Amino acid sequence: xxxxxxxxxxxxxxxxxxxxxxxxxxxxxxxxxxxxxxxxxxxxxxxxxxxxxxxxxxxxxxxxxxxxxxxxxxxxxxxxxxxxxxxxxxxxxxxxxxxxxxxxxxxxxxxxxxxxxxxxxxxxxxxxxxxxxxxxxxxxxxxxxxxxxxxxxxxxxxxxxxxxxxxxxxxxxxxxxxxxxxxxxxxxxxxxxxxxxxxxxxxxxxxxxxxxxxxxxxxxxxxxxxxxxxxxxxxxxxxxxxxxxxxxxxxxxxxxxxxxxxxxxxxxxxxx
Length: 272
Known about the structure:
Layout: E1 6-7, H1 20-31, E2 43-46, H2 51-63, E3 70-76, E4 85-87, E5 92-95, E6 98-101, H3 104-113, E7 118-119, H4 122-125, H5 134-140, E8 145-151, H6 156-171, E9 177-182, E10 187-189, H7 191-206, H8 210-219, H9 227-239, E11 245-252, H10 254-257, E12 263-271
Parallel strand pairs: 1-5, 2-9, 3-8, 3-9, 4-7
Antiparallel strand pairs: 2-12, 4-8, 5-6, 10-12, 11-12
Helix pairs in contact: 1-2, 3-6, 6-9, 7-8, 8-9
């Protein structure tokens, strides 16, 4: 693997343990919170904060999914670097658990179907939101390959076009592909306000209503950072035949920190 196409971890040792044994132990502890048998899923929403705060929510989601060999991981672009529609279509991402190859054929098929998507490693270099999902996915699927996509746009028509393109490309594959939307929920308001706002958004997610989610987030000032990935994932999942969404777990940072004045919300959702 050429070093030029190896993306090194940006937040190992900060958002999650940088030591492989410690990371495996911590992530496995969050994956063991559920006793329900895993199911095949089309998509999911999982949080991307430090594992101390949101790992238990993310782990509960991934434990419920039969993670296939191929995944698409969409995340918001927190850094503002790079293109607004940015993917990597070659190389690998290093984590303390090993390297995860980028699924080149799947990425190329998506680029061909959706030419607005740009090949852009800069948008991913310092972005944490896709990276923190990978150790969970690696533990659930040792043969994991994935397509990373960072979205710096909230325009509904573009998100719908991306979702439609994802659905068409995935429908043409000979094996299942999981779409992961990496997102935290409302940011830095009180616990009480955050729970009310978040459940307005979650109501639209559970109704498999991507346009409704976009509308409620943008019009009611809900600071859900990954609503773009969630809208695209829901659009794709509906086209692929999704019939239900389940809220696996919800929490806020206040549940861990004890600070209820300024919290971040975390929702784990399974779409099948």
